[in-house]
Amino acid sequence: MNKNPQTPLVFCTILLLLKSLHANSHSHSHTVCIIGSGIGGASVAHFLRRYSDPQTIGQITIFERHGVVGGRMATVTIAGETFESGASILHPKNYHALNYTKYLNLRVKQPKHADDSLSLGIWDGHKFVYKTLNSSSKLPIVQRFVAIANSIVMLLRYGVFSLLRMSSFVEATVNKFLRYYEGFESRPVFESVEGMLKWAGLYNLTTRTLGEELVNVGLSPILIQELVTVITRINYGQSVNISGLAGAVSLAGSGGGLWSVEGGNWQMAAGLINRSEVVLHLHEEIESISYLGDVYELNSTKGKSYNCQVAVVATPLDELNILFNPAISLPPRKLQHTHATFVRGLLNPAYFGLGSLSDIPELVGTTETADVPFSSISILKEHEKDMTYKIFSREPLADALLDVIFSVRVETIKINWAAYPHYQAPETYAPFILDGNHLYYVNAFENAASTMETSAVAAENIARLILSRLSQQVYYSSTNLKSFSSDSSRLHVEL
């Protein structure tokens, strides 16, 4: 049989043509630069990969000015033990965080206390205005009796109906927030924070203070002044003058079933980045972002320049000096700094007017008064001869003051977090799209509420927004989107 001598040539030509088409398809993929490697930036990368293909999203580059990923999720080691130093607790209905944990094969860590076994004291700078009963007995029946007695004391002080109304207020808010997990067939892509909040029925909560909202639903003044204030001071370092939505989120973060990731919550960000085929630049701070007509030029403090077709800011801009060209406009916003002080030692009972160390509650919360220099003190770990404590305060605690609060101080670590916005009602919001093109801002949503999960929810919307605007069509026709939508809908139904 005679072979056609042109067959190999034709075959090679077809291969070259296919290779050229493949290369061209990748040349049309969009490059993305993300500033910030916290849960927001990591989530944007994750959802971009999950909801698209290489023909749509090409290289993703993340810039982190510090030497580790995780942003405000971080750990500290004291007395040979590792503890959360930043964002520490997750709610049982934080479905993105739960999905991340399963996806990354991370272990869930439950709180060391049962919901009713933590001893609490509310300190006004002079005395404990409320203090739970405590017992040195470890017998389960004794502990159960003490828990029942404490429940009765709390009901008598704050009122059954007031406590029920507070619980209903939080539950109603959480149920509205759960709409953000609905399938794409019913959940649109949001171009503004206001639109996102209004769609879920949460916007009005940001127009009034938490105090006003709670008075409106019938809570007693003493419950607001004491228990609610303790919770907002611990979770947001602020009073009940924060907005109603941030306050509701804060109250939700004091309920039962709270959890964290064994070994540190930062592993969620690290794992998502590792799985998202990201080019990661640590120790590289971006100092300017310029729009050149078809790409963004990012210049770093290392003197390097990078070009991307999409730029995402996933870190608060409030205390950064990034130069934008053209200039962008943001509403003024102050960040609330929380000082986390870790001490291995022993508290001084005399500071609290008590006779013995065992009389000091495991969690000391404080009322809104100038007479107390800290927001809370809690026991993290009991050692053989001393303990590890975590203290939250609005201002740094001087060593001289710590020597008054503590009778023994073996080791001390101080961390200053630019933790969350300083909330005020009515809230105003930065845009998700900073320039009308492809410069996006995840942290615009933080003025509604600032948690690990709200950052993930905002990041998921940003990823969908990017893909929707790049394609100029509704992007949830993708198989990946439908698959994820199905999972989300199932979670919502199970509630």
Can you describe what's shown?
With 495 residues, the protein is α/β, with parallel strands linked by helices. It has two domains: 31-70 and 162-219 and 263-331 and 424-495, 3-Layer(bba) Sandwich (FAD/NAD(P)-binding domain), CATH 3.50.50.60; 75-161 and 220-262 and 334-421, Protoporphyrinogen oxidase, mitochondrial, domain 2 (Polyamine Oxidase, Chain A, domain 2, Alpha-Beta Complex), CATH 3.90.660. The protein has 13 helices and 20 strands. The protein has helices at residues 7-27, 39-51, 95-103, 140-158, 160-177, 193-200, 210-216, 221-236, 244-252, 266-275, 399-405, 452-471, 479-493, and strands spanning 30-35, 57-63, 75-78, 81-84, 108-109, 120-123, 128-131, 260-261, 278-281, 286-291, 296-300, 305-308, 310-313, 323-325, 335-347, 363-366, 376-382, 387-393, 406-421, 439-441. The protein has a seven-stranded mixed sheet with strand order 7-6-16-17-18-15-19. It has a five-stranded parallel sheet with strand order 9-2-1-13-20. A four-stranded mixed sheet has the order 12-11-10-14, with no helix packed on it. Strand 6 (120-123) and strand 7 form a beta hairpin. Helix 2 packs across helix 12 and helix 7 crosses helix 9. It is globular, with a radius of gyration of 26 Å. The chain starts with 6 loop residues before the first helix and ends with a helix. The model is unreliable at 5-27 and 473-495 (pLDDT under 50). Keywords: FAD, Flavoprotein, Glycoprotein, Lyase, Oxidoreductase, Signal. Belongs to the prenylcysteine oxidase family.
